[in-house]
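[#protein-structures] MJ: dropping Regulatory protein, LuxR here for a structure pass
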Amino acid sequence: MITVLLVDDHPVVRSGYRRLLEQAPDISVLAEAADGEEAYQAYSRRQPSIVVMDMALPGISGLEAARRILKRDAHARILMFSAYESEVLIERARETGVKGYIGKRSAAKSIVEATRIVVSGGAFFDKLQKRAESPQAVRQNPVELLTPREFEVFCHLAQGHSVAEIAELLHTSPKTVSVHQTHLMRKLRLTNVVQLTHLALRHGLITLEK
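AK: finished. structure tokens for Regulatory protein, LuxR:
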């Protein structure tokens, strides 16, 4: 039996995905979590076969939660789903060690198949993978220049978090966050957070409404 830790901050969404997953006779949702910290704790306690997790979560992002889970257990199987079908996010997920990524628009059709493939040791990126692997797409996106930690800080800044809030979320110091902010602003040739937010919107890393 495939056991699932299902992570999304909206109870209605979790309920819908639970129904989709448990229609399959070989899949059972073992536990649920509403944010990244809760997901990490639940994974540590329950050790599911796979984590099926939203990319956009309150507090630490799905990517950061995945990074922490994989640091604890390098063999963890993680499948991300997201409303954002950005090449940058897909590539970042792959770099983190996530084995699958599906868009929410196609989740109803592919979540069961993707879960089985990832648990069996495969990777599932569906049609999104071809776009993520496009050298032209990568070259056109300056956010690819950022390190994983700079990218995490970038996303939090774009969502309106302060340096102090980001430091608390990432379990680091405000000084370290400020250093990352300085580096990423220089790499992206930005002078203020307004420009940063516009860049994030342009590349589909955030939306005006979740």
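MJ: nice. The chain has two domains: 2-132, 141-202.
AK: one more thing. The first strand starts at residue 2 and ends at 7.
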